[in-house]
């Protein structure tokens, strides 16, 4: 549930004004962003968790790192899975952006397939990713990228 819809809107407005494409390539020039290209392989999930934890620690937000690492694991896992289906490019990129009182995590992938949350089947080994993202983050969504593909994002509140 979104506790402060105006602050959330402000955070998301920044991504729309600057654009995920610029933020992901570093052309946004903002000191409160970290982006990391990830190879198209399964161990990118661990790399994304490590970058997320390290970045949050550097921002003094260690308390958020477990939930954020879990969510970024799900987002990167989905990106790897859907990038396999797309032809051509296979880059995945992680973006972390701090806009107090929020942290926005985004994972870009080349797939144009729209992310859809399914009702979780707790017996199955897959299909719970976006349910986990929704459960642990304040809100989540996705945006199309100008270069093709999409960025799936999750928003976290940094202050109680």
Overall description:
The protein is α+β, with helices and mostly antiparallel strands. It has a single domain (5-157), classed as Histidine kinase-like ATPase, C-terminal domain (Heat Shock Protein 90), CATH 3.30.565.10. The protein is 39% helix and 22% strand. The chain has five helices and five strands. It has a five-stranded antiparallel β-sheet with strand order 1-2-3-5-4, with helices on both faces. Strand 4 and strand 5 (150-157) form a beta hairpin. Helix 4 (65-83) runs antiparallel to helix 5 (129-136). The longest helix has 19 residues, at 65-83. It is globular. Residues 1-8 have low confidence and may be disordered.
Morphology call: globular
What is the CATH T-level topology?
Heat Shock Protein 90
Strand tally is 5
Report the uncertain regions: 1-8
Instruction: Give the C-level CATH assignment.
Output: Alpha Beta
The average pLDDT value, as a whole number, equals 78
Specify the biggest β-sheet. Answer: 5 strands, antiparallel
CATH homolog superfamily? Histidine kinase-like ATPase, C-terminal domain
CATH architecture: 2-Layer Sandwich
Computed CA radius of gyration, to the nearest angstrom: 15 Å
Helix content: 25-40%
Rounded to the nearest angstrom, the distance between the terminal CA atoms is: 14 Å
Proportion of residues in extended strands: 15-25%
Supply the number of helical segments.
5
- Give the class from helix and strand content and strand pairing: alpha+beta
């Amino acid at each position: 549930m979104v506790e402060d819809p105006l602050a959330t809107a402000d955070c998301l407005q920044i991504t729309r004004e600057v654009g995920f494409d610029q933020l992901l390539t570093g052309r946004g020039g903002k000191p409160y962003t970290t982006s990391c290209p990830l190879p198209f392989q399964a161990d990118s999930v661990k790399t994304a968790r490590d970058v997320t934890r390290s970045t949050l620690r550097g921002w003094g937000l260690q308390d958020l790192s477990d939930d954020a690492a879990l969510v970024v694991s799900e987002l990167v896992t989905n990106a790897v899975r859907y990038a396999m289906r797309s032809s051509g490019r296979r880059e995945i990129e992680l973006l972390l952006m701090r806009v107090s009182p929020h942290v926005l995590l985004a994972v870009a992938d080349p797939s144009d397939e729209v992310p859809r949350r399914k009702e979780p089947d707790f017996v199955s080994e897959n299909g719970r990713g976006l349910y986990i993202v929704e459960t642990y983050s304040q809100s989540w969504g996705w945006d199309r990228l100008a270069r093709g593909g999409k960025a799936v994002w999750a928003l976290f509140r940094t202050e109680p």
